[in-house]
């Protein structure tokens, strides 16, 4: 597979207001793929996107397997509101991670969807326990908004026919 620049890749504008919106979007995209009408404009398959989102939701419940340098945390705390309420940028790589992020292993759409739906159930009903490695402690609502912005970024590369 040829890796494309995700900074320049076509992306749909999504705005997800609640976990239920994310669940509906994921199910609709999986259905579009089954129907053969889904086009991906990024570097990952739909299963990888679902798995990636599920991995990062799981981290706020199970703990993060990495630490962020203090200067980065200090800077990012000033960006908290923009991140929770704005639009995440494509093509950002996390320093020190070989692939620039985590949770990108190849998955079938069905396996990724199952993982994502399981994590969405947790996010919808249980307050996350761990602080963000970038923003520190977050409320349940803030965690939810952060994951919705993250999903908007990655699901924006999926174009249903």
Description:
It is a single chain. The chain is mainly α and 161 residues long. It has helices at residues 19-35, 46-62, 70-77, 80-85, 109-125, 140-155, and strands at residues 38-40, 158-160. It has one domain (19-160). The chain is built from six helices and two strands; from the N terminus they run H-E-H-H-H-H-H-E. The protein has a two-stranded antiparallel sheet with strand order 1-2. Helix 1 (19-35) packs antiparallel against helix 5, helix 1 packs parallel to helix 6 (140-155) and helix 2 packs antiparallel against helix 6. The longest helix has 17 residues, at 19-35.
Question: Class by helix and strand content?
Answer: mainly alpha
Major sheet: 2 strands, antiparallel
Computed Rg: 15 Å
Q: State the domain count.
A: 1
Measured distance between first and last alpha carbons? 22 Å
Give short descriptive properties of this protein.
single chain; 161 residues; mainly alpha; two-stranded antiparallel ribbon; 50% helix; 4% strand
SSE inventory with pairings:
Layout (H helix, E strand, L loop, with lengths): L18 H17 L2 E3 L5 H17 L7 H8 L2 H6 L23 H17 L14 H16 L2 E3 L1
Antiparallel strand pairs: 1-2
Summarize the structure.
With 161 residues, this protein is mainly alpha-helical. The protein is 50% helix and 4% strand. It contains six helices and two strands.
């Amino acid at each position: 597979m040829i890796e494309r620049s995700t900074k320049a890749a076509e992306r749909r504008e999504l705005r997800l207001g609640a976990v239920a919106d994310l669940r509906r979007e994921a199910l609709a995209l999986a259905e579009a793929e089954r129907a053969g009408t889904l086009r991906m404009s990024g570097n990952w398959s739909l299963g990888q996107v679902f798995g990636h989102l599920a991995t990062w939701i799981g981290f706020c419940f199970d703990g993060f397997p990495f630490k962020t340098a203090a200067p980065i945390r200090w800077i990012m705390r000033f960006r908290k509101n923009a991140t929770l309420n704005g639009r995440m940028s494509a093509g950002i790589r996390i320093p020190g991670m070989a692939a620039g992020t985590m949770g990108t292993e190849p998955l079938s759409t069905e396996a990724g969807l199952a993982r994502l739906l399981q994590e969405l159930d947790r996010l919808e009903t249980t307050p996350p326990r761990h602080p963000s490695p970038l923003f520190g402690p977050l409320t349940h609502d803030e965690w939810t908004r952060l994951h919705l912005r993250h999903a908007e970024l990655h699901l924006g590369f999926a174009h249903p026919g």
